Amino acid sequence: MLECTPQTITERSAGKINPAKTCQPIGAMYAALGIHKCLPHSHGSQGCCSYHRMHLTRHFRDPIMATTSSFTEGACVFGGGANLKTAIKNVFAIYDPDVMAIHTTCLTETIGDDIPSIISSAEIPAGKLVIHTNTPSYVGSHITGFANMTKGMVNYLAESDGKPKKEQVNLLPGFVNPGDMLEIKRLVKAMGIKFIMFPDTSGVVDSPMTGEYVMYPSGGAKVEDIRDSGNSKLTLALGSFASTDPAHQLERKCKVPALTLKTPIGIKATDELLMALRQSFVQEIPAELATERGQLVDVMTDTHFHFHGKKVAIFGDPDVVIALTEFVLSLGMVPIHVLTGTPGNAFEKKVNAMLLEAGVSARVKAEGDLFELHQWLKHEPVDLLIGNTYGKYIARAEDIPLVRIGFPVLDRSVHSYLPVVGYKGAMRIIEMISNALLDRADRDAKDEDFELVM
Amino acid sequence: MVNEQAIAARTASIKTKGQQKQQVACDTDSVAGAVSQRACVYSGARVVLNPITDAVHLVHGPIGCASYTWDIRGSLSSGSELYRNSFSTDLQEEDVIFGGEKKLVSSIDELVSKYQPELVFVYSTCIVGVIGDDLQAVCKAAEKKHNIRIIPVQSSGFAGNKSAGYRAACDALLKIMPNEGPVEQKGNTVNYLGDFNLAGEIWIIKDYLKRIGIEVNATFTGDSSYRTLQRAPQAALNIMQCAGSMAYLAQRMEDIYAIPYLRVSFLGLTDTAASLRSIAASFSDPMLAHRTEALIATETATINRQLEAYRTKFKGKKAAIFVGGGFKAISLIKQFRELNIEVVMIGTQTGKQEDYAVMQELVNDGTVILDDANPAELEKFMVEKGANILVGGVKERPLAYKLGVAFIDHNHDRKHPLSGFVGAVNFAQEVYSTLCSPVWHYV
Prior knowledge:
Chain A is an alpha/beta fold. Chain A contains 17 helices and 14 strands.
């Protein structure tokens, strides 16, 4: 399929070929699923909602429920107010969620629907909540949409009771899998620290099979907890692209200090998370986590010779790619191509700073696409590609092993249940990378070089 | 869990055979606030046109519409793979304010110089209509500049449902063919409309027709190319499988080129055999009918033996069907009957009145028939009717699994060809592998 990608890199002025991002609303939909008994609502044409549900369904392999304003030509001309009001009525009458989380689309942003005033004039049953966020698809990416919906939660739900802050931490996990959210919670629990995580899609899009279909599974952040996040003494925003904005909003609204950390992928970023918690809550790192860390270091030393000097290309969502870049550097690998589709100079700045420190020179780009990444790889090949499923075309065309980390993963399963964050997650990444590299070495070995022990 | 009163609002679109007199209401707009399984105009146009292998499919809009449709169709190509790439103008805020035409022009220029296509489709998305970009004018100017076909597809998402998109796609297809007829038509040739070559299904049907003595001239749109579509008016007959997407094109081709059309379906033994016979009967050559009978006899003999084993295993099992269009739903009722499985629930996203009338004829009393169902309804009726297996698309799969119900993808995610005689066996095999899997013992 990619045989026609030309090697010569020419400046492109318009458009994307094989994108490395998608649009805001899907991120908002995913974030909204991280509230308990919440039904995301897409204010736009039917197709948006259908595509987002389909894409999320393929990644998580779980039912993804969301409603749509089902726009027609008329709604487009006269505004979507009537559709949204009908939708609000129907959503509570038919699906009875506790919260309806509305996000906009490029269409409703362009025609200028004023969502807050529509909500305020709609009939909302007593005890039910409607929240919203603006997610113009022509700004940012799905990560921006995730951040915006998380910010919407802060805007509508978080409150400070004015009393001294509680000994609890807010955790904004960013756009990661439920398995990652679960692992972050396990780490903080092991520290003995009370926490509030939102959004929290664990227990929602990884719900167990019981033979019964439950529209609102048991997981998700509880509204009362999100409300109470205004009383916490600290917010940890994990991943600057997905979490900093809502954390700052909470700081402004409820005076909860915000600290941005990397998505805790790899040993260094996980250390930083635990150190930040220790510092703020004067807790010792429990023995079980110290052991986990020790085991991870043990694995790193056991395997480092497989990794040293190996060239890597990493692409995907900015927070995950930044953390992964740091981790592969700590393994002795050389990330020579690092790309995200999401716009934002901070990405290039952060990655370049890490590379500079490690003395590695690389191509780094935000707002890139996979056509460009492929061209880079034609110029300077790598030993390993790390990214989402869309990397498989390049991996095949250039015969490079691919390790699937990120969103979306459409062609493999189980990924959403198991973490890549924390010490355990780091160990899992090492297993994935070394399996990929060593399987390749076995495949390519001549008979006389084929070895039992590696 | 589902409010019964709310379902009452949709009673016109749901009926149980033998209980109500009225027809199922369909072809209507979805209720705002519903978890509809339906999609938009763009999605309809894109699924129909995307299988055209050597075209650049450029989506004019923000990135999402191109991202979500990147190589998800599952249609195979015997030639170019260009259609499997994703091209978008990736409109940004400033484009929305100042207009996206300039960016569209540069995108077309760059893609044409990179890939040298003979055909470019430019899809409009929701906001293109709203911000007032003149797609028609841009495409016309670009056609002149590059001396290739650059065809605008009027597929703004809000301007109707998926069916409106099918029509927009057909309009685009008509632009590829010479705009005057009739054209001199060749003897025993057909165009095959409404097959998208998922898992290579077109190749199976092409082979059957070849064995009968009929040449397939052009296919719409699975495994097609600019050149094959261009010569479509030369066929003597159009055979049409997915009528939902292609009926309009077939009608227009009859009007313009005087090519008659015939509805066919290659799903299941009954429909495959019947379709081959009616195709053969459309030509005056008596040898065709002769060879058709021979082919049906050979193929059914092998296949019936293989199917017999499954029929015993499936006895007493019940199926629910929720698919995109009418023809598939109708064929599936028959196909399940061939396998000893009773259909207890059936519905479509975009079926037409006449489709529902046929379904109504075919199913047993007590079968629930519903249009544009939402997941809550699917769940309710699958449980109520005791369905053991659901046939559907991407979004229905996990729903079925959560209920402990087996599942078959009869949509883009199918991995084995389900067409023709061999497809009937594949279908039975797929039904068996999901229905009789040991995993259900652990639920």
